[in-house]
Design a protein that fits this description.
Elements (H helix, E strand, L loop, with lengths): L2 H4 L3 E4 L5 H10 L3 E5 L10 H7 L8 E6 L4 H10 L4 E4 L5 H11 L3 E7 L5 H10 L5 E6 L24 E3 L8 H8 L3 E4 L14 H16 L1
Parallel strand pairs: 1-2, 1-8, 2-3, 3-4, 4-5, 5-6, 6-7, 7-8
Helix pairs in contact: 2-8, 7-8
Length: 222
C-alpha cells in the first residue's frame, strides 16, 4: 500500500436531491452521499425522493441520512423505505438519544458537533468522549439553526485525539479543502454548500462537485 492510499481522505457529498447529482457523485468517486431528512431545510428530500435516489448508489458507497431532533417514528419511517447505511445526527440529541435512535434501526451513526468561536480543543475532546459510541464526530461551524451555514471555523482547535473519527465540515470548498486536509488529516470531509450554485441553496453545481473531489485527491497525493 502506497503513501497516498494510507492517507486517503473519505469524501461525503451532502444535500443531494437530484438523480443526476447522485450519479455524478458516484462517478466522481465519492465515498458517501448525504440525504437531508429535515423538512425546514432547503436541501430536504421526501422519503419517496430518497428511495428513488438511492437506487443509483452502489453497494460500496454509503447512503447517509441527516436528521435533526428526529423522533423514533420518523427514523423508522425513513429507513423502512430508504436503504441508508449511516445516520447523521445534527440536532440537540444527547448521547443516550443518539444511541437509542441508532439502535432502533441497527445502523451506525455520526454525531455533528458545532464549533463556536470560543471552543477549545478540550471542549471538542469532551464532546468526542461523550459520544464515544459514534463512528464519526462531524465538526461543523456554529451557526444559527442546524448546519449548512457554509461557515469555516478555526481548524487549529481540533484535537489530534479524534483520529479516525474526525469528519471535517463547515465552509469547505475546492479552494480550501486541500489546506484543511494537509493541516488536519481528517478521516473524512463533508461538503454541501461548497458544491452548490452561488446563491441557490440546495442546487448542486457539477463543476464545483468535480473540483472539490479533485482537490481532495490532490491533497492526498501530496
Amino acid at each position: 500500500m502506497n503513501e497516498a492510499q494510507l492517507h486517503r481522505t473519505r469524501i461525503k457529498l451532502c444535500g443531494l436531491s437530484k438523480t443526476d447529482d447522485v450519479r455524478l457523485a458516484v462517478d466522481l468517486g465519492a465515498d458517501a452521499v448525504g440525504f437531508v431528512f429535515y423538512p425546514p431545510s432547503a436541501r430536504s428530500v421526501s422519503v419517496a425522493q430518497a428511495a428513488e435516489l438511492t437506487r443509483y448508489v452502489p453497494t460500496l458507497v454509503s447512503s447517509v441520512g441527516l436528521f435533526v431532533n428526529a423522533t423514533p417514528e420518523w427514523i423508522r419511517e425513513v429507513t423502512a423505505e430508504v436503504p441508508l447505511t449511516l445516520l447523521q445526527f445534527h440536532g440537540d440529541e444527547t448521547p443516550a438519544q443518539c444511541a437509542e435512535l441508532a439502535a432502533i434501526v441497527g445502523l451506525p451513526y455520526w454525531r455533528a458537533v458545532c464549533v463556536g468561536p470560543d471552543a477549545t480543543a478540550g471542549d471538542l475532546l469532551e464532546s468526542s468522549l461523550q459520544y464515544a459510541a459514534a463512528h464519526g464526530i462531524l465538526l461543523d461551524a456554529l451557526v444559527e439553526g442546524f448546519g449548512g451555514g457554509g461557515k469555516v471555523f478555526d481548524w487549529s482547535v481540533i484535537p489530534t485525539d479524534l483520529g479516525h473519527r474526525a469528519v471535517l465540515s463547515g465552509g469547505l470548498n475546492a479552494q480550501n479543502v486541500s489546506e484543511a486536509i494537509r493541516r488536519m488529516r481528517p478521516f473524512a470531509v463533508d461538503v454541501s454548500s461548497g458544491i452548490e450554485v452561488p446563491g441557490a441553496k440546495g442546487v448542486k453545481d457539477p463543476a464545483r462537485m468535480a473540483a472539490f473531489v479533485r482537490a481532495v485527491r490532490a491533497a492526498d497525493a501530496e
